[in-house]
Design a protein that fits this description.
Largest sheet: 8 strands, antiparallel
Bound molecules: zinc ion
CATH class of the largest domain: Alpha Beta
Number of helices: 7
CATH architecture of the largest domain: Roll
CATH topology of the largest domain: Nuclear Transport Factor 2, Chain: A
Shape: elongated
Helix content: 10-25%
Structural class: alpha+beta
Order of helices and strands: HHEHHEEEEEHHEEEEEEEEEEEEEEEEEH
Strand content: 25-35%
């Protein structure tokens, strides 16, 4: 994309003057000329060109890079480099549609240069791979946005877990962004707080993009990273996932997402496990047929999987409860809700992740929490143990495309198990 914005000299100077007055007052603006060295004065006078005399530049006119220092703003930075305050104000105004120069990141590099007529040019990064180029000429800035081509470099990592996936992968120099993406994708199947075992294997292939030129202008920005493949072995399972069109799939084209979410709400803490426990309200031991999550009242509760709403009203000690009927004989129950999603009715079809209600403290409950139960053929099971993958899969043309993509991925030399031909 190329966009250009020009300001006319007269208008710009008027606006610029106002701007300077506003930010510089009460300090008076001095119109007095800066005293010049006599030699320069005399030589200019003697050649009869005094009217055209300009102060010889004392600033660095070569192309060079300066970095935004703490406490520095655009004006202090650029006037330091030989631009006039007016030029800086005009630059900020002209560039405004493309970049907010009033919000420069500390450490951000700016490339500054001056041409033979001492007209400044400023270049800086907007996002990774995007440069804002500002050239001053005849009293106006010409500001454009340019795209720098990227070159992607493929990286592979194989990590044997000894303490935690995060720590062990960081120790192997896997970028944090990649670890987070991988953990997000794996969270459908692996409970990292409880199910990790020493000896589990994590593999990842990812691409790191880098600009083909002007690297110095992007030194403060993170290189774009893209996870293309990941593998995790855990508890006898071997998950191999391939990203295709932004979604992870297993090798056979099934969506690499679980049939039922392990955690049907975000930002929650598991506060009570499945199994025998002392009941806080009843005061005696009894089987806890679900798991409890603690989160603030009003936290949205999601359908753990797609299915049909079987119940959405008060249900005895469960308080406000929702029951969803899923495929393969599964049902999920969500209890003690503060309220329901008003759009939800019995018989409605819901997708995985749809909001069905909000966390609360209704029914026989000692405090705000979600009580979550999973049934298989009428009997409760431990939600933590569910490893049933989603039944959604690619088909037809999409599956054929995916297979071609996989074949290409596996044709490249790789040390990773899931990328071997
Ligand atoms: Zn409970």
């Amino acid at each position: 994309m190329l966009s250009i914005k020009r300001w006319h000299v007269a208008a710009a100077i008027a606006v610029g003057a106002l701007f300077i007055a506003a930010i510089e007052s009460p300090k008076p603006i001095s119109d007095e000329p800066i005293p010049q060295p006599l030699v320069a004065f005399d030589s200019a006078w003697n050649t009869g060109s005094y009217a055209n005399y300009r102060k010889p530049p004392t600033h660095n006119r070569e192309t060079h890079i300066v970095y935004v220092q703490p406490g520095q703003n655009l004006t202090s930075l650029l006037t330091n480099e030989g631009l006039s305050a007016q030029q800086v104000v005009l630059l900020a105004l002209t560039a405004q549609p493309l970049i907010d120069l009033g919000r420069l990141q500390i450490g951000a590099p700016l490339e500054i240069s001056f041409n033979d007529n001492d007209q400044p040019r400023v270049r800086l990064a907007k996002e990774y791979g995007e440069i804002i180029d500002a050239i001053y000429e005849n009293g106006a800035w010409n500001v454009t946005k340019q795209t720098v081509p990227l070159r992607a470099e493929t990286h592979e990592a194989a990590v044997t877990i000894s303490s935690s996936l995060y720590e062990d992968a960081v120790a192997e120099d896997v970028p944090v962004t990649i670890i987070n993406s991988a953990m997000m994708a794996l969270s459908h199947f692996v409970d990292f707080q409880r199910q990790l075992q020493p000896g589990d294997i994590f593999e990842a292939q990812y691409a790191r993009s880098e600009v083909v030129r002007d690297k110095a202008l992007f030194s403060h920005l993170q290189n774009p990273l893209k996870l293309s493949y990941l593998r995790f072995t855990n508890g006898g399972e071997d998950y191999r996932m391939y990203r295709f069109d932004g979604t992870f799939y297993f090798e056979d084209g099934r969506v690499a997402q679980s049939f039922l979410l392990k955690t049907p709400l975000n930002g929650a803490r598991l506060t009570s496990h499945y199994g025998n426990r002392y009941h806080p309200v009843l005061g005696y031991n009894r089987q806890h047929k679900g798991i409890d999550f603690s989160a603030p009242v009003g936290t949205p509760i999601m359908a753990a999987g797609r299915g049909t709403i079987k119940h959405a009203s008060r249900k005895g000690s469960f308080g406000n409860a929702v029951i969803i009927e899923h495929a393969q004989g599964y049902e999920t129950l969500y209890a003690h809700l503060d309220r329901f999603n008003e759009d939800i009715d019995v018989g409605d079809y819901v997708s995985q992740g749809d909001i069905i209600g909000y966390l609360g403290n209704t029914g026989l409950s000692a405090g705000r929490h979600l009580h979550y139960e999973v049934y298989r053929n009428g009997r409760t099971i431990n939600p933590v143990d569910i490893k049933v993958p989603s039944d959604r899969r690619l088909s037809g043309v999409e599956l054929a495309r995916f297979k071609r993509y996989l074949a290409q991925l596996k044709s490249q030399a790789s040390e990773l198990a899931g990328l071997a031909p």
